[in-house]
Amino acid sequence: MKKLLTFAAILLISVSIASAQDSPYQKIMKKEIAKVIESDSLMQLQESANAFARISELNPKEWQPLYYGALAYTFQGLDKSLVLGKKDEAHAKAEELAKKADAIAPNNSEIVALQGFIIMAKLSADPASRGQSMSGQAMSTFGKSLAIDNKNPRALALMAQMEYGMAQFFGKGSEKACNLAKQSQAVFAGQDTETLKAAMLPTWGKNMAESMVKKCGL
Q1: In CA terms, which of 8, 46, 75, 78 is 20 to 30 Å from 208?
Q2: Residue pLDDT, tens place only, 147-206
Q3: 204 three-class SS
């Protein structure tokens, strides 16, 4: 028992030291990332987008503030309370920020997956008129993300959603979609979330993967 308590104390001290070593940039980023991932409020999402814009201005060589700013706008554009024009405004801002992030960190699987998510969000805003033209674009973008990292759980989950929707529309089987969802869930389960958070890397999307797996009855 004494050894166990000693180990726990050492672990707690190590975590405290690691936290204390965070730069001001890392501290504010981690705070805002937590907000944007947890929020479902349009006001909070806009506040986060504004915060990431300020952080990006002070740290122009970093891609993460642009990435999370784009994510905040993408989440805004998915809000059902907004009219189509407002959704499109949010998605246009998301596209612009994601493009800037891509210029800083090209061939980044997470940024490419986000670009696919933005296309998917634009499609969902008006599926009747955009489905045919944007479905292939979204799928090819997720494919590009997976070509860079074939275990990107967000790209897998988002592609699963697209595959499932198309299967439902065309009256086809959902085996491919469900396999992708299962792959995504497995990757999420094997990740060290705290390590990803410490590096300010994306962790969102797990609920989306689990929801898809439930739809599939897996």
Answers
A1: 46
A2: 999 999 999 999 999 999 888 888 888 899 999 999 999 999 999 999 999 999 999 999
A3: coil
